[in-house]
């Protein structure tokens, strides 16, 4: 039976999706514009007898995630930009220890303390590791409340499959806005299989004690571990390659935009199509791995690209890597917490097309 | 059908509740909806704003930047409201508090004395529900014809005693336009 549609804030839908995904432990520290998510988890995780801790800081929260994840529990933290910066050391440790975890960034404007309004200025941090050392996290970017719930739910199993943290990169608009959402089936964490690599349960499971650490002082061994991890990254790149396309086939100019910017660009696309202008939209859903191959294919078909971002231009670097000089790549962005209007994005594409 | 509405008023006038209830009712009527609130860091006061969209189709940009309809609940919000209204759009004015009309000769201005009607019903806090009735009647985008059921699932049980008053306010709002 199809479940009823609920009207929820993005932050709450992310929280409920995590609860339903069998999240066993949540650790957070308040920051606008993701506070409803922490509040939601406080109420619902405790009600289900699971672990919720409001940590003393973001640094503490991510290290609690490390601890919970190393026992094999589905663990999660969430924050917004400045708070996610604070978590980077812990994320690097998680990656070094090959631990799964889900990290949600409901991004706000920066740099520094910045503002509390939506932004996409954390793309570099999200897709290039963000902390120290050689590593990546898998990054998924929702475009609305339903998508935020679906991707968060799936993030737990993706993360476990690859033993790589998954970062959900949303923004303050997606966190704060309300839309209808149909929630996924609940999973009881007690029914999830035990992890052979986790600490604890060694006697019960009849295996040697595991030691979960990111530290290795033997250069050759650490190098081998990094090589093994990068070999896994290559497999992830083949497995995860997500995007959405709208009216791309006959388009002369294709918007490339993710998250909120993709919604705005879709509005601009409809305005352009109503005037007979051949405009399309390519929306990366996985930001790491980035869908390079498909964009390259579109570049070879002679499309031009207009990147629309709520930043000074970050994703555009991946678009340029994908296109590799085969097609012109243009940029339109707003930042500081401003969200572009579909009218101004339309005006930009019209200018490009000489209309 | 897509109806993009921009709502603005003084913090405490129920702008956010109005927007939420509007989209909640629309969702129950089978429409796709988006609600995005916008307010400052103030604990109370300041101008509260909401972008609400209801549609038969997938909703693209959640930001209302060219509104089919605009709701202005107080005088201070007129300036924002008149800027965001599309050419030939409709501006709903809470005429109990707004004494100077929006400077938009192209727009259809609808006057609703929300506070006066609400006071007559016995509670000024339901002025927003009066406005929602007017918005429903004029735009036709959300019918609000099953309001009792909708309000029962929207409000917690402790607030159910207020449902009759809210329905009366919506009905009076419909009658006022």
From TrEMBL, chain A:
Domain of life: Bacteria
A molecular-function term among this protein's GO annotations: 3-methyl-2-oxobutanoate dehydrogenase (ferredoxin) activity
InterPro entries: 2-oxoacid_oxidoreductase (IPR052368), PFOR_II (IPR033412), Pyrv_Fd/Flavodoxin_OxRdtase_N (IPR002880), THDP-binding (IPR029061), Transketo_C/PFOR_II (IPR009014)
CDD domains: TPP_PYR_PFOR_IOR-alpha_like
Keywords, alphabetical: Oxidoreductase
Domain Pyruvate flavodoxin/ferredoxin oxidoreductase pyrimidine binding: 16-209
All residue ranges annotated as the Pyruvate:ferredoxin oxidoreductase core domain in the record: 251-345
Stretches of the chain forming a coiled coil according to its record: none
EC number(s) recorded for this UniProt protein: 1.2.7.7
PANTHER family in alphabetical order: SUBUNIT OF PYRUVATE:FLAVODOXIN OXIDOREDUCTASE, SUBUNIT OF PYRUVATE:FLAVODOXIN OXIDOREDUCTASE-RELATED
NCBIfam families referenced in this protein's UniProt entry, alphabetically: PRK07119.1
Protein name according to UniProt: Ketoisovalerate oxidoreductase subunit VorB
Species of provenance: uncultured spirochete
Lineage of origin: Bacteria, Pseudomonadati, Spirochaetota, Spirochaetia, Spirochaetales
TrEMBL record, chain B:
Domain Pyruvate/ketoisovalerate oxidoreductase catalytic: 11-173
Presence of keyword Oxidoreductase: yes
Matching InterPro entries: 2-oxoglutarate_synth_KorC (IPR052554), PorC_KorC (IPR011894), Pyrv/ketoisovalerate_OxRed_cat (IPR019752), Pyrv_flavodox_OxRed_cen (IPR002869)
Gene Ontology molecular function, alphabetical: oxidoreductase activity, acting on the aldehyde or oxo group of donors, iron-sulfur protein as acceptor
Taxonomic superkingdom: Bacteria
Keywords: Oxidoreductase, Pyruvate
Oxidoreductase keyword on record: yes
Protein known as: Pyruvate/ketoisovalerate oxidoreductase, gamma subunit
Protein's organism: uncultured spirochete
